[in-house]
Amino acid sequence: MIEARQIAVTFNAGTPMETPAMRGIDLTIPKGDFVTVIGSNGAGKSTFLNALAGELRPDSGTIMIDDQDVTNWPTAKRAGLVARVFQDPLGGSCANLTIEENLALAHARGKRRGFGLSVSASVREEFRERISRLNLGLENRLGDRMELLSGGQRQAVSLLMAALQPMKILLLDEHTAALDPKTAAFVLELTREIVSERNLTTLMVTHSMRQALDIGNRTVMLHEGRVVLDVRDEDRRGLKVEDLLHMFEKVRGSEIDDDALLLS
Amino acid sequence: MSQIAFLGAIEVGFLFALVALGVFLSFRILQFPDLTVDGSFPLGAAVCASMIVVGIDPYIATFAAAIAGAGAGVVTAWLNVRLKILHLLASILTMIALYSVNLRIMGRPNVALLGETTVFSPLESLDMPMYVSLPIALAVLVLVMKLALDWFLNSEIGLAMRATGVNPRMARAQGIHTDRYIIGGMALSNALVALAGALFAQSQGAADVTLGVGVIVVGLAAVIGGEAVMNTRTIFRATIACVIGSIMYRLAVAGALNSEMIGLKAQDLNLITAVLVTLAMVIPGMRMPFRRKRKGGASS
Ligand SMILES: Nc1ncnc2c1ncn2[C@@H]1O[C@H](COP(=O)(O)OP(=O)(O)OP(=O)(O)O)[C@@H](O)[C@H]1O
Ligand SMILES: [Mg+2]
C-alpha cells in the first residue's frame, strides 16, 4: 500500500530555470494494485517514481508505505520496501561487475552485509537455478561481466534482481522502452509473472497506450505534475486506446484552462 | 645499475605498492580522485616517528600512523559527502591542512630515527645484509596486504563498495548507504598510504614534512603503469598490477637516474614521473598488439 499526499517538487526553485515537476500529487494505491502510469514527456512520471524510491525528497507532502511514514527515509533505507527497474538497461546494474556479483548485490538488499564471501558456492547455485528460468541461457554465463549482455538480457536480469528479496512495492520506469518488440514482450511477460506471483503493489510507467490498458488493473495519467486521470477495473475495461489518445489531446490542448484538466 | 641500487629500487617499490593499493581503492574502486595522499603519507611518517622518539613501541606507533591516515581519509570523504564539496577540492583542502598538522605533530620539519628501535630492527639480527632482508620483509607484508584487500573486495561489504563506485544510484536502490561506503573506503585507502609513510620513515631513518610531495603521482604511476602491462579484469589481478606497477616505476626511475648517458639528476624525478604517467595513460589508447582491450577497471 502506497499513500502519496500532496507531493510537490520544484527543481531549481527561485531561479530562471524553475521547473515545477510535481504540483501536489495525491494517490492511494492499495496493496496488490498494478498501476500503469502514462503522461507526456516531462509530465513528472519519473520524478514521482524517484520520490517514491527516495532518490528525491519532496519539497512538501508525505509518502507512506504500508502505514510507515517514509518521507524522510533515504533510498538505501527504503530498499527493504521498494525495488525498482530503471528505463536505461545500464542503470539497474553495474556494468563491469559480473552477473553473479550483480545478483549478489541484490541478494543482500535490505539485509546486513558482512565480511563473508559475496558469491559463495551455495548462492551461486541459487542464482544459477533462478536465472535458468529466464530461458536466456545465462545460467552458464554467471561469471561474465554485465556489460557483455544485450539490453533485453540486462533488463531481464534487473527484474530478477528486483525480485530476489521480498519487497512491498515495485517501481518500473519504462523498463521495456529500450528493447525491441519481441524482447519487450518477453520482459513484460516476466514482469506480469513476478507481480502476480508475489501479489506486489506495482507502478509501471509506459508510453504505450496499448500496454497501459492491457497490463495491470488501474491506469493513472499525469500531466504537468498532477494526476489528471485515474481509472480502474470496470471503468478501465471500457476504455480504448483511442479514448486515451483523445484525453491526451484534451489535456494538451487545454493547458491554459486548468479546470478542464479534471477528466475522470 | 649496481646490485644495491637495484635492491634499493625493489625495496622502495614494495613500499610504494602500499600507496598504489590505497590509490587503487580511491581512484579505481570508489572513482574518487583523492589527493589527500600527499598529506597522509607524511602524516603516517610524522605520527610514527614522533611516537618512536618518545619511546613508544614501534609496532604501536606504526598502527597509530595507519589510524591517523584513516582519520585523514574520513575528513576528505566527509567534506565531500556531507558538505558536498567537489571530491578533488575536498582532498586538496585536507592535503593542505595536513601540512600544518604534520608540522604540529613533529614540532619541527623533520624527526630523525637513527639509533631508534623500529619495526625493522629485528631484521638486523638476521644473517644477511639489510639491503637484502628489508625488500624481502616488505614483499611479504605487501603480499599479505594484497591478499587481505582481495578478500575484502570480494566480501559482501567490499562488493557494496565497488558498486558504490561504479553505479551509486543502483547501489542505493540495493540498500547500500553509499555515503558510508565512501567514508569507509577513503579511510581504508589513506590508512594504507599512512602505513607506507610510517614504514618509509622507519626504513629511511627520518620523517620529513616534505616527504609527501608527489606521492599521489607516484601512486597513480604505479596503478596506471600496472594496468598498462597486464589485464586487470579481476580484483586479484588488479592488485597484482598495483604491485608490479610500483616496482616497474622504481626500476624505470633508478635506470634513468643511473644511466650517465642521459645525464638526469635526482631533481629531475618529478619531471620523469610526470612523463612516465603521461606515457602510461596515452599508450594504452594506441593499438598495441600485445594488449587486449581494457575498459572500466577491475571486476572479478
Ligand atoms: N534533476 C532535475 N533538474 C531539473 N529539472 C528536472 C530534473 N529532473 C526532472 N526535471 C524536470 O522535471 C519535469 C518532469 O520530469 P520527469 O523526468 O519526471 O518527466 P517524465 O514524465 O518522466 O517524462 P519522460 O516521459 O520524458 O520520461 C521536466 O520538466 C524535467 O525537465
Ligand atoms: Mg521519465
Describe the model.
- The complex is a heterodimer of chains A (264) and B (300).
- By secondary structure, chain A is of the alpha/beta class.
- Chain A has helices spanning 45-53, 75-78, 99-107, 121-132, 151-162, 181-198, 209-214, 233-237, 241-253, and strands at residues 2-11, 19-29, 34-38, 60-65, 68-69, 82-85, 169-173, 201-205, 218-223, 226-232.
- In chain A, the strands form two sheets. Chain A has a six-stranded mixed beta sheet with strand order 6-7-8-3-9-10. Chain A has a four-stranded antiparallel beta sheet with strand order 2-1-4-5, with helices on one face.
- In chain A, α3 packs parallel to α5 (151-162) and α5 (151-162) packs parallel to α6.
- Chain A starts with a strand and ends in an 11-residue tail after the last helix.
- Chain B is mainly α and 300 residues long.
- Chain B is built from eleven helices and two strands, in the order ααααβααααβααα.
- The A-B interface holds A 53-55, 74-77, 79-80, 82-84, 86, 91-98, 101, 104-106, 108-111, 113-119, 145, 147, 161 and B 152, 154-160, 162-163, 166-167, 169-178, 233, 295-300.
- Bound molecules: adenosine-5'-triphosphate (ATP) and magnesium ion.
- Magnesium ion (MG) binds at residues 45-46, 173 of chain A.
The CATH architecture of chain B comes to Orthogonal Bundle
Mean pLDDT of chain B equals 90
Give me the CATH fold name of chain B.
Answer: ABC transporter involved in vitamin B12 uptake, BtuC
Strand content of chain B: under 5%
Order of helices and strands of chain B: HHHHEHHHHEHHH
Helical content band of chain A: 25-40%
What would you report as the Rg of chain B, rounded to the nearest angstrom?
19 Å
Low-pLDDT regions of chain B:
287-300
Give the beta-strand count of chain B.
2
Number of strands of chain A: 10
**End-to-end CA span of chain A:** 22 Å
Roughly how many Å is the radius of gyration of chain A?
A: 19 Å
Structure ligands: adenosine-5'-triphosphate, magnesium ion
Largest interface: A-B, 39 and 29 residues
Give the assembly state of these chains. heterodimer
